[in-house]
């Protein structure tokens, strides 16, 4: 779901009601779906697989492709069991909680209906797993208008079917993006003595109906170590609070509520897996499975897509260790310069990489970049912090000092300015080029950098001349922790944004962590401040001045991406929000022609096609804050946000009007690298 402020409310309603992903079928709201019976040939079984098929309303007349949901029944049940969810599917599709989809409900009569959906090694057993995951899936994709992609398939089941759905999601990640696991009949390390898993030969070997070795090989703990984190899967696990309680206290560990909690706590610790757990009122029956199915479909169904996700380009910048993005700049000739912090030799080095050159700003201590800005002569400004003597004039320094450097078009360092309070931490987090070739920088100080410190940390704004001299420094803060993350220069002055825990002059505390925005005159005179947020955790990360002269800020408020525009006097012009059920946060603002902006951030929800954990989010807003485009792209892992839940993203507008983005990605494996991509603001995609 995408929400806007009052100015764009009407447009939001129109867009939400009419848009669909490329190739995705659109539901006919006037008609419910239908269920019919069919069969699929199975070479593995030597006999057909019978199944019930749910087709959404409008399927016969349409041309689009559909995602597919496979539903596995419990032991002793038939393919008719799942037909009761038809009305739930109709309602969820009609309400646009899930996309129109096809549901396949296969019958599993083998091993006297106790086959556990595995390939049995028991005499007379059947290769059910092969039949379902190969023959049935291939038949469905060949017979119906499906999208043969893993992110267009889910599998679900209850009881024995819950165990089967879990196994298929873990053992066949190439087929399924997630699983609905309801009251799963899974037991670790072995089933109790009275369990039916021991009786039907599903886990047998030869004439033996049950083999501990076979069961252990096929059970989910053996699969967790084989999970591919580049094929992320999501599980929705639900169980009743009145499930069967084994009267033998020694077997209480195997009650399904206990086993489900153990499953949840095991899978959520595996890279590449995410999970939700619900304990619901009811027993081992549809009083639990029916409402749990609806919740699961809302959680998992929204991520279904008939088109593949948009990947990030590679290879990433950085070294073999942990690296962080440090900025991106685009020059008049269209070339791009990328900055990053590279791990190596037990320290971080600041690296700036331009067209045909690489510059390293380093000491035996740590250096980290937090911003680049292009200069008219083809050079760049770089800012960050150092724990060493980066400029050669701070021997013995052992605490964080702010630094700003100027590099020419060939990467040669023209000057470095290092400053801070001895014995205190001083960091820069934001950088903007001044009209005369100098710089504005923002960050924080724990000392008395430009006056007495008012709390833990105070926000800092500083102005540097074109030759690197500090022209002035301003310190802003209250009794709590105050940081400045972004800065932008415009015709009327300078704008800064950040966060505060207790508020300060003109930015009263709203509760929790607040965002703030401030406007300064060119000489550093504070003109206005504004608090942003509510009682929760809020912050502002980026700011840019539009071609219309508005200062557009972005960050997070209440878990949603927030963008707001301010006039030169601090009056709020418009406000826009992008919200999904998960976290969405803005990190940077790139100005476009006509007063428009491109907001760059990350989302853990769905705005376009989900790629992995946290994806890069791009949102184009017009001069009145109305959304014109939104998209997401990424790797199978987290992108754009670090392990501390702080965004690590930068954006810059190219002369062509496209937007260059650089940020942190874990998609290359290891401890993280740095990507750079250029997107078209018309689509938000490369």
Automatic annotation (TrEMBL):
Signal peptide: 1-25
Keyword Signal appears in the UniProt entry: yes
Molecular function via GO: acyltransferase activity, transferring groups other than amino-acyl groups
Keyword Signal: yes
Domain of life: Bacteria
Keywords tagged on the record: Signal
InterPro entries cross-referenced by the UniProt entry: AB_hydrolase_fold, Esterase-like, Mycobacterial_A85_antigen, SBBP_repeat
Classification via PANTHER family: DIACYLGLYCEROL ACYLTRANSFERASE_MYCOLYLTRANSFERASE AG85A, ENTEROCHELIN ESTERASE-RELATED
Name of the featured protein: Enterochelin esterase-like enzyme
Origin species: Nonomuraea dietziae
């Amino acid at each position: 779901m995408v929400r806007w402020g009052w100015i764009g409310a009407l447009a939001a309603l129109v867009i939400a009601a009419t848009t669909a992903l490329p190739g995705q079928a659109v539901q006919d709201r006037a008609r419910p779906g239908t269920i019919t019976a069919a069969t699929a040939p199975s070479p593995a079984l030597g006999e057909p697989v019978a199944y019930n098929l749910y087709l959404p309303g409008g399927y016969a007349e349409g041309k689009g492709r559909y995602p597919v949901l496979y539903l596995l029944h419990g032991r002793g049940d038939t393919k008719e069991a799942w037909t009761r969810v038809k009305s739930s599917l109709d309602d969820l599709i009609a309400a646009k909680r899930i996309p129109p989809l096809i549901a396949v409900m296969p019958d599993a009569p083998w091993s006297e209906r106790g086959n556990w959906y595995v390939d049995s090694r028991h005499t007379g057993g059947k290769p059910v797993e092969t039949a379902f995951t190969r023959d049935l899936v291939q038949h469905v994709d060949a017979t119906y208008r499906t999208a043969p992609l893993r992110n267009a398939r889910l599998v679900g089941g209850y009881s024995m079917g819950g165990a089967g759905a879990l196994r298929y999601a873990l053992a066949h990640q190439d087929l399924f993006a997630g699983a609905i696991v309801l009251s799963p009949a899974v037991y670790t390390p072995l089933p109790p003595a009275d369990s039916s898993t021991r009786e039907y030969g599903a886990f047998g070997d030869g004439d033996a109906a049950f083999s501990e070795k076979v069961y252990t090989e096929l059970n989910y703990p053996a699969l967790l170590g084989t999970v591919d984190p580049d094929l992320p899967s999501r599980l929705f696990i639900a169980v009743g609070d009145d499930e069967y309680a084994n009267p033998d206290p020694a077997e209480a560990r195997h009650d399904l509520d206990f086993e489900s909690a153990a499953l949840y706590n095991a899978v959520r610790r595996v890279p590449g897996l995410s999970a939700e757990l619900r304990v619901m009122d009811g027993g081992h029956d549809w009083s639990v499975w029916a409402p749990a199915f609806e919740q699961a479909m809302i959680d998992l169904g929204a991520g279904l897509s008939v088109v593949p996700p948009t990947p990030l380009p590679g290879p990433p910048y950085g070294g073999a260790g942990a690296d962080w993005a440090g900025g991106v700049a685009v020059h008049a000739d269209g070339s791009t310069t990328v900055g990053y912090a590279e791990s190596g030799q037990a320290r971080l080095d600041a690296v700036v990489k331009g067209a045909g050159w690489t510059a390293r700003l380093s000491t035996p201590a740590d250096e980290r970049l937090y911003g680049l800005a292009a200069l008219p002569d083809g050079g760049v400004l770089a800012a960050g912090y150092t724990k060493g003597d980066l400029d050669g004039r701070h021997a013995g320094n052992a605490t964080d000092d702010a630094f700003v450097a100027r590099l020419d078009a060939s990467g040669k360092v023209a000057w470095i300015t290092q400053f801070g309070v001895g014995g205190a931490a001083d960091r820069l987090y934001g950088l903007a080029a001044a009209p005369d070739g100098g710089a504005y920088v923002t960050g924080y100080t724990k000392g008395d950098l430009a006056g007495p410190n008012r709390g833990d940390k105070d926000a800092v704004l500083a102005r540097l001349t074109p030759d690197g001299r500090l022209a002035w420094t301003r310190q802003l803060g209250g009794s709590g922790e105050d940081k400045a993350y972004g800065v932008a220069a415009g015709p009327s002055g300078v704008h800064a944004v950040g966060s505060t825990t207790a508020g300060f002059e003109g930015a009263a505390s709203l509760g929790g962590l607040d965002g703030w925005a401030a406007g300064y005159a060119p000489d550093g005179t504070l003109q206005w401040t504004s608090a942003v947020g509510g009682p929760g955790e809020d912050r502002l990360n980026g700011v840019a001045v539009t071609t219309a002269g508005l200062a557009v800020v972005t960050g997070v408020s209440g878990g949603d991406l927030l963008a707001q525009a301010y006039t030169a006097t601090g009056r709020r012009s418009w406000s826009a929000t992008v919200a999904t059920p998960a976290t969405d946060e803005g990190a940077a603002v790139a100005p476009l022609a006509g007063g428009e902006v491109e907001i760059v951030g990350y989302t853990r929800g769905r705005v376009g096609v989900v790629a992995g954990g946290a994806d890069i989010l791009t949102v184009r807003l017009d001069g009145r804050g109305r959304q014109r485009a939104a998209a997401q792209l990424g790797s199978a892992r987290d992108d754009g946000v670090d392990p501390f839940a702080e965004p690590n993203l930068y954006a810059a507008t190219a002369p062509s009007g496209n937007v260059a983005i650089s940020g942190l990605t874990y998609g290359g494996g290891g401890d993280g690298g740095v990507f750079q991509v250029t997107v078209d603001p018309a689509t938000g995609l490369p």
